Amino acid sequence: MASGSRAQFSSKLGFIMAAAGSAVGLGNVWGFPTQAASNGGAVFLIVYLLMVVVLALPMLIAELTIGRHGQASPLRSIASIWPKRSKVPVGFGLLGLLTALMILSFYSIIAGWLAGYLVSPILDLIGLHTAANWLESFSLERNLVLALVFIGLTMKVVMSGVTDGIERWSSRLMPVLVGLFVVMIIYILTQDGAMDGLKMYLVPDMSHFSADLVVGAMGQAFFSLSLGVTVMMVYGSYLPKDINIPKTAAQVAAIDTGIAFGAGLLILPAMFVAQKHGVQIYDQAGHLLNSDTLVFTVLPAMFDTMGSVGVIVGILFFALMLIAALTSSISMLEVPVSCAIEELGHSRKKAVWWIGGVAIALAAAIVFNFGTLFGLVITISTVYLQPLLGLVWAICAGWVWHRAGLLEEIRQGNPEVANSLFWKVWPNYLRYVCPILMGLVFWVTI
């Protein structure tokens, strides 16, 4: 068990902002709208909301509970629920740390692009056209420099610790993120063509429903809450014992889902506004063009057609994207840092420096071998390892952890939970249904 000096979030609100910040990332503000646009809009939205409830939320509760029980790094938290000494939980825990680092490495490259698109129009306004063009042009130097800047910013926040770094900055950035969303949504919905996008997003067309859509929505719900990579175990380990985990997890999931919904409310109407301005968004067969690079192609093209207002809108949009990326990258770095502090006895500063250095080295390796490694690292970490680890944690909480121990941990923040409908349903649901759903996601991806 961890010592009494272990860091904790100073308040329930601070935890919710940090956990929601981790969950709210490019998967919400980029991945979800792109998937919705590619899969009929409203139908995907409905299935996604259902999957948040039936898969993501039960799994989130499990990871937070394991973390708070262990009050330690993921390696020790997983071992704390294992009945006998074994190298199995340590092995999967290390795999979780590796996955978090892999995600951080490619995430930093994408976030660097966002930073470039944020700063570029500002440089253009003050006459630095060459520098502005460099920031938006794909090159080895640009990719490397901006990735280093982003990882450096992430390291600075994590180095300040749980309360003064992660909690403080998440509590500042999340309200700004929500505020930017509201401003951008209001503006876009006043533009010509926006109602067509809104209709697609909110009025279901069941002809788009398919088994692939269901599995895609299931995976999106799982990935958007940072599940599988032990982030929520780490954040759970910083939770006081008197916090009601199921209730708090539901609040985190609600914020995350609300941001994803808002992203769709912004991006889909914006796509149709772009179409009204002459930007092609679908091919003749009705398939979304440039789905992987939507935010770097379609939307900037739309901003360019808006004149001086478009410059402001573009800056706000990429500021929103960058904040979402930063709140997630903070949590990805905290996972291996928390382990280095407890397992190796390193100070937080030392752990951040050397682990941040590893992340930089990984990002540099991807940049120098972009064509080979970029897509490969994304596929291995998010398509294969994340679902696999999610399946492992579901089995750990549902089958390995003794039911009495699980109840005792949940009960500490909710003394009456044993008599609740939640406790009558959730343990068996976690034991039987979640592994089947996670196994389905994993099976379909391979």
What does the model show?
The chain has 446 residues and is mainly alpha-helical. It has a single domain (12-445), classed as Amino acid/polyamine transporter I (Up-down Bundle). Helices cover 78% and strands 0% of the residues. The chain has 18 helices and no strands. It has helices at 12-23, 26-38, 42-70, 74-80, 88-125, 129-136, 140-159, 162-189, 194-202, 211-224, 231-237, 245-276, 294-304, 308-343, 348-368, 370-400, 403-411, 421-445. The longest helix is centred in the first third of the chain and has 38 residues, at 88-125. The radius of gyration is 21 Å and the shape is globular. The two termini are 38 Å apart.
Number of strands: 0
Provide the succession of SSEs: HHHHHHHHHHHHHHHHHH
Anisotropy-based shape: globular
The largest pleated sheet is described as: none
Annotation field: number of helices: 18
By secondary-structure content and strand pairing, the structural class works out as mainly alpha
Please tell me the total number of domains.
1
Identify low-pLDDT runs.
Answer: none
Oligomer: single chain
How do the helices and strands line up, and which of them pair or pack?
Blueprint: H1 12-23, H2 26-38, H3 42-70, H4 74-80, H5 88-125, H6 129-136, H7 140-159, H8 162-189, H9 194-202, H10 211-224, H11 231-237, H12 245-276, H13 294-304, H14 308-343, H15 348-368, H16 370-400, H17 403-411, H18 421-445
Helix pairs in contact: 1-8, 1-12, 1-14, 2-10, 2-12, 3-4, 3-10, 3-11, 3-12, 3-16, 3-18, 4-5, 5-6, 5-7, 5-14, 5-15, 5-16, 7-8, 7-14, 7-15, 8-12, 8-14, 9-12, 10-18, 12-13, 13-14, 14-15, 15-16, 16-18
